[in-house]
Amino acid sequence: MANWVTFGRFLLLFLLLGIVYSGVPALQLVNAPLTILIIALDGVDGWVARRFNEETLFGATFDIAIDRIVETVLWVVLAHLGFIGVWVPLLFIIRGNLVDAIRSKGAASGTAAFDMMQSPIGRFLVAGRFMRGFYAVLKAVTFAWILLWQPFPAIAPEFWAAWGGALSATGLVLAWASAAICVARGLPVIVEFCVNERPAAQRG
To answer: Alpha-carbon distance 91 to 72, whole Å?
Structure first.
């Protein structure tokens, strides 16, 4: 059941893309709630997996893959629409590929992604529920905030003329904060991998 919830998030992503690119401002008013739903379901599938004892290596890997697809697609879309700089999706794609390549080695030996973290700082930033939740909420707020205002230049031009600059700037700050956390959570994975892959003699 948990994997079906994860797959449902994948389908809802394409519904959101259809609405974002529909060119219908009234329809785009659902951008923000639909974005929040897609990201909130990331917590639901994990809860379902734990509640019904469905925690598997496949499920954990599938969940991370869908997470990566959702966030990468949304960053690319926001850049394509001109809401953020193209460096933001490029950063997430580069970091995601590096981390996924490292995690694939753990998966090959039967180790789940978050179980690979050994240092206290790595477990806190990467595997800890607080940081995972905080990061998910920050990205959800960022995506929802930016997409929320997409139809307003058309449906409320006077309001947008007065407040559009400040609202857009807030979206940029949220995107930059998300990028900073992205880097902060990726570095422990890379550093621990490099340390653990050194020959035993070099590790002392």
So the answer is: 10
